[in-house]
Design a protein that fits this description.
heterodimer; A: 680 residues; mainly alpha; two-stranded antiparallel ribbon; 29 helices; 2 strands; 70% helix; disordered N terminus; B: 515 residues; 21 helices; 73% helix; globular
Chain lengths: 680, 515
């Protein structure tokens, strides 16, 4: 079912793989020929991601015309009557939207890097641009993957790229260690994902996302038709229980990559990478990959109310938990890092609460305003000669007007102030959580946590803005900032406009109030391949997962969260406005210590790793030393001994050989003859 | 379980339509070319017997002959001669059969012969009787291609002797070298004994069936026979004859001595091409004449091959692990590989015949390149006169890095690591063994492969990680030997991604035997 309405496959779909291949080409060019180019590979990257952006827009337009695409393009292994491993392209409203987001952010990050890396005279630029190219390639291919196996492959590539880029400045102490941490922590989650992929293959014999033979459809048939469930092997568990287990296994990878509690610890450390990389990781690539994966296979998660509830609860908890830590941070990038964790928590909350569209909406708006904020922070860091402590800044508003106003737009979006993008999407997530939560206490708790986090978000966002841009300059550097060039301002302006207006595409409260058909994203996601659209997910949630929504006006919920956000912002204003703001964090006392130390998350995880990890390592070492090595040594000493015996047979005397040969033949004759009964 | 996965979906396999009718001689072009080249060498040598001045002409002629034969075989294979719906071509009343398997193995023989001849150009420099050397190689290759096409037990015997007799002389080629002459004599004596057993086996089979043609025997046996004991002894003695040619235990005793004593290019030729020739004729005789469907109930020869495979791979690998000399280690490893290939015959009773036999054929193809290359590297070492033991190879990587990279590729590919086609072919054999339920053989294959990694990696360790002895110095980089070693390494490596090109041909050729 590659084509819905068009009789021939649209040409845009034929060239769609080039969306990913272009950045791959720029990776190769930057890696091998980057040093010969004037901008060390940047131009190749800009061109490639620009091309990807145009192609993605073209694909999006084609999808808007009602055509979808789901084709295998390369088969790795195919075994009849078992399963096959292949790469394919799945283009539907969700992936088309995400392709545009990823390629746009990636394009802007490339442009920004010209200002952040090239103009600052950084070294190792070909390596840097090669990493960016590979990163974009991996993420784009991940987005249009048509099956879980391909997703896993590119999921891992994304992880590898993050390791390469976070550790870009490998000569310093912190970046390599942060890169290792990011790699290892996400890998811990990916183990579960890998087991999940294998289990999906073992259960369904396929891992494709779309089509009548895809695993979400098979799972759905097993649950709804009843009869079909007997054909699937569910390893002794009930079908729904087993699907929940599968969902949890895959969720392991999601929690690692999307930095959800308790695997979020890598993300703040990952700030050691260059700031444009942080923008790319947080807005469009690595962290988004986890949430996108859940959205991609939402038809599967919608079958398991348990998995959904866990997703929602983890999301809501993470949103609050991370927001509280962002409150006390001094480093501007740290604040943004925790806000990322918190915002992805909202997306998980949305997905878990049955708000598929809301979560995708927030994924989209967040991609724009978080990219904006990171690039804005990057501009500030350029201006401050690579100092990141907000207490050394202040008063940058006059000197950096473009940066200030765009950053402010991003902050308003992040805090969720009407009418900026984040307001609409975050509000819809919370609304979905609330209406479904009124019938499910667990969801309601998740909703309440998300709601409280709104207050914190408003507070830390405006604390950041006020400390950075307002008041009197607190250091010499802040009084004489380095003014950024066009290549820094251009991405900021583009993203600033988007962060301001993109929320208008899906104004649910307004639609509710006025009755206008202006929920464009809802319409967009309602279409798509059969079984792969929000309408179908809604049915599944009701019939299989048993979700029911209470009747409630979105206006009320919107007003509540807006009031909280304004409250947070107002508190920040009252504390940190003025020319010389005080440090109020000390007044928090022990709570501050706790927050500054991130609830001792790192400490306890290191403790777990050292206690259990080392214990297990020691045990397996002993097993390896005594049993495995023992067996190997035993085999080799036996074989060397018997090898020596065999050597002795080889006497060098031909008549011995002839005797042995004849005896051997006789022995063979006897054995075969006796079993064959010739001599009877 | 289909081994030849559709990894290369764009590759449609050989053309499977009915081949156009062609003259007998066209189908036999590779055989005729090889024989003709041998005669041309004879003419050159009688006109101008001075070997020293003739070296390029002799080696060139021989190489051109084998390359042409190789090209002819590839063209015939690609054109689908003797394959597909038309079935095999039966020539001269069924005495010779040209089909996919015959052509596939002709490709192996001619490729190995080409590599060996190119390498011999340097190895034989300043030696006498060069014309005779090349002639013997070509005649042996002719015999092998005839073995691949033999359609009756009579042609089997004659072509086997045609391949063997030149081999005896080739092993003893270094007339003033004690080891070479002794090895040649031992080879000849064991060969004579084996031939006697083989001929006796043929006569017993003839006694039981009254036929010599392979198809005719199969037809006769399909009705059952009263003379089960006679037939059974005959079948096993025939198997013994093949076991000699393939250097399988207990008919392997000649192999270590012969491979070690012979000039290294000859060892390469014998251990790769001659072994493959023994296998192709065994495949054909046992698959066609004693087809498992017809005789397995009374004469369970798969059990015999099961035992031979198990014993051969175990003894070959265990003995190889204790050797001090590289060439002797390779000789025993060659015995071990014969054991792996024998799995293809041992598993011929479980309804997966085309696949398991195809896997063995693929392994012989890959083996033809990696093992030839390894022996030719030894020839290179002999050319440099640096000694024969593992220690003598220490630090060679510093002096001849390219050749040592090639040798490392051979070693790892022989061990079954994925740096060469050996990984895939061994994997196919393993899949075949598991798929047919021969778990013991599969386990033995794995254990022996693990053991083989030990002694193969010893070579690699010597080449790269040990410090060279002070006296280590090599004089010159002989062009012919280098070209052959590197060519073999490149093909070994390319057979890793390109294995599916060969596997489709091999499995369809093997399946055609049972059609």
């Amino acid at each position: 079912m590659s084509v819905a309405e068009a009789s021939t496959t649209a040409f845009a779909f034929e060239v769609a793989p080039a969306i990913a291949v272009l950045p791959l080409a720029s990776f190769v060019i930057a890696l091998f020929a980057g040093k010969y180019f004037p901008k060390k590979g940047a131009l190749a990257g800009v061109t490639a991601t620009g091309g990807s952006l145009l192609l993605s827009l073209w694909v999006m337009l084609t999808v808007a015309g009602g055509a979808y695409y789901n084709e295998e393009i390369y088969t790795l292994v195919s075994t009849p009557e078992s399963f096959d491993l292949h790469f394919g392209v799945l283009l539907d409203p969700l992936s088309a939207l995400m392709l545009v987001i990823v390629s746009l952010v990636s394009f802007l990050v490339h442009v920004f890097s010209l200002g952040y890396m090239n103009d600052e005279g950084e070294r190792g630029l070909p390596r840097y641009y090669a990493g960016l190219g590979l990163f974009s390639f991996s993420m784009l291919a991940f987005v249009f993957a048509d099956n879980l196996f391909m997703s896993f492959v590119f999921f891992e590539l994304v992880g590898l790229c993050s390791w390469l880029l976070i550790g870009h400045w490998y000569r310093e102490d912190a970046p390599p260690s942060a890169a290792k941490k990011a790699f290892l922590v996400t890998r811990f989650g990916d183990y579960f994902f890998l087991i999940g992929v294998v289990a999906v293959f073992a259960t369904f014999g396929t891992a494709t996302f779309a089509g009548s033979e895809s695993f979400p459809v098979l799972a759905e048939e097993a649950l709804t038709d009843g009869g079909a469930g007997g054909e699937l092997s569910t390893f002794g568990l009930g079908a729904q229980t087993w699907f929940t287990v599968l969902g949890f296994l895959i969720l392991g990878g999601v929690i690692g990559k999307s930095a959800q509690f308790p695997l979020h610890t890598w993300l703040p450390d990952a700030m050691e990478g260059p700031t444009p990389v942080s923008a790319l990781i947080h807005a469009a690539t690595m962290v988004a990959a986890g949430v996108y994966l859940v959205a991609r296979m939402y038809g599967f998660y919608a079958l398991s109310p348990t998995a959904l509830a866990v997703i929602a609860f983890v999301g809501g908890f993470t949103a609050l938990f991370a927001a509280s830590m962002a409150v006390v941070k001094r480093d501007v990038k740290q604040v943004l890092a925790y806000s990322t964790i918190s915002q992805y928590g909202y997306m998980m909350l949305g997905l878990g609460a049955g708000g598929y569209v809301a979560a995708v909406f927030h994924l989209m708006t967040h991609a724009f305003f978080k990219a904006l904020l990171f690039l804005g922070a990057g501009a500030v860091i350029i201006a401050m000669h690579h100092r990141q402590d907000m207490w050394e800044m202040g008063g940058l508003r006059e000197k950096l007007p473009v940066t200030y106003y765009t950053f402010l737009a991003g902050s308003l979006a992040l805090a969720g102030i009407v009418p900026f993008a984040g307001f609409w999407s975050k509000d819809e997530v919370l609304y979905e959580a609330l209406v479904h939560g009124l019938t499910d206490p667990l969801l309601l708790v998740a909703y309440l946590m998300g709601l409280i986090a709104v207050f914190f978000t408003g507070f830390y966002t405006f604390r950041m803005v006020l400390l950075t841009f307002h008041g009197e300059p607190r250091t010499h550097t802040a009084r004489n900032p380095h003014l950024p060039g066009w290549n820094v301002k251009f991405p900021l302006v583009v993203l600033g406009i988007l962060a301001t207006v993109i929320g208008l595409t899906n104004m649910t409260p307004v639609a509710e109030a006025t009755g206008l058909e202006i929920e464009f994203l809802h319409t967009w996601l309602e279409h798509g391949i059969e079984g792969l659209n929000s309408e179908h997910y809604g049915e599944l949630l009701e019939t299989v997962a048993g979700y029911s929504a209470a009747e409630l006006s979105p206006l009320l919920a919107a007003a509540l969260s807006l009031a909280l956000a304004l409250g947070g912002a107002g508190l920040a204003y009252s504390l940190y406005s003025g020319d010389r703001p005080d440090r109020h964090t000390d007044r928090l006392g022990d709570a501050r210590t706790l927050l500054m130390n991130n609830y001792y998350q790192d400490e306890y995880q290191v403790w777990i790793a050292e206690t259990f990890g080392t214990g297990v390592a020691r045990l397996s070492d002993r097993f390896d030393q005594s049993i495995v090595d023992g067996a190997v040594n035993g085999v080799s000493s036996v074989s060397l001994f018997s090898g020596g015996r065999i050597r002795r047979i080889q006497t060098g005397i031909v008549s011995n050989y002839a005797t042995l040969l004849t005896l051997g033949l006789v022995a063979l004759l006897l054995v075969v003859g006796l079993t064959g009964g010739w001599f009877l | 379980m289909v081994i030849s996965a559709s990894l290369v979906t764009w590759f449609s396999g050989p053309t499977l339509q009915t081949a156009p009718p062609i003259g007998d001689w066209v189908a036999l072009t590779p055989v005729l070319l090889l024989g003709l080249t041998a005669l041309i060498l004879f003419v050159i040598d009688s006109i101008d017997p001075d070997d020293a001045s003739n070296t390029p002409a002799l080696a060139g002629t021989a190489a051109v002959g084998t390359v042409l034969a190789l090209g002819a075989a590839v063209v015939l294979l690609a054109a689908g001669i003797g394959q597909g719906q038309g079935g095999a071509l039966r020539l001269y009343g069924g005495q010779l059969i040209v089909d996919g398997m015959a052509l596939f193995f002709t490709v192996i023989f001619t490729s190995v012969a080409t590599l060996v001849i190119v390498a011999s150009y340097d190895y034989l420099a300043d030696r006498v009787y060069q014309a005779e050397y090349y002639m013997l190689i070509l005649l042996a290759a002719t015999g092998m291609t005839l073995m691949a096409a033999a359609g009756s037990l009579a042609t089997v015997f004659i072509s086997l002797e045609l391949a063997s007799l030149p081999s005896y002389a080739l092993v003893a080629f270094l007339k003033d070298n004690r080891g070479s002459v002794e090895a040649g004599l031992k080879y000849f004596l064991i060969g004579a004994l084996s031939s006697a057993i083989f001929a006796y086996g043929i006569s017993l089979v003839y006694g039981a069936t009254g036929r010599l043609g392979l198809d005719a025997i199969a037809q006769q046996l399909s009705g059952g026979t009263q003379l089960v004991g006679i037939l059974g002894v005959g079948v096993l003695m025939v198997a013994g004859g093949f076991a000699f040619k393939t250097a399988s235990v207990p008919f392997h005793f000649w192999a270590p001595a012969a491979y070690e004593g012979a000039p290294a290019p000859v060892s390469a030729f014998l251990s790769s091409a001659s072994k493959a020739a023994g296998f192709v004729v065994a495949f054909r005789v046992f698959a066609v004449a004693f087809s498992p469907d017809a005789v397995a109930a009374s004469v369970d020869w798969t059990l015999a091959f099961w035992l031979l495979a198990a014993v051969t791979m175990t003894i070959g690998n265990f003995a190889a692990a204790t050797q001090d000399k590289v060439k002797r280690m390779l000789a025993y490893s060659s015995v071990g590989h014969a054991g792996y290939v024998l799995i293809g015959l041992a598993a011929l009773n479980a309804g997966q015949n085309g696949l398991v036999l195809g896997a063995s054929m693929i392994h012989l193809l890959v083996y033809g390149f990696m093992n030839t290359g390894a022996f030719l590297f030894v020839a290179l070492a002999e050319h440099w006169e640096i000694g024969r033991t593992f220690e003598d190879y220490n630090g060679l990587g510093t002096q001849a890095p390219i050749a040592c990279v090639a040798m490392s590729v051979f070693m790892f590919s022989l061990a079954g690591l994925p740096v060469g086609g050996g990984f895939m072919s061994k994997y196919f054999i393993l899949v075949g063994a598991v798929g047919t339920g021969h778990f013991v053989l599969a386990a033995l294959l794995l254990i022996n492969s693990a053991l083989s990694l030990y002694y193969y990696s010893r070579v690699v360790r010597s080449l790269w990680f040990e410090d060279p002895a002070d006296s280590l110095s090599i004089d010159g980089y002989p062009v012919g030997l280098y070209a052959a070693v590197i060519g073999a390494a490149v093909i070994t490596f390319l057979l890793l991604p390109g294995i599916f090109l060969a596997s489709d041909v091999a499995t369809s050729a093997a399946s055609a035997l049972f059609a």
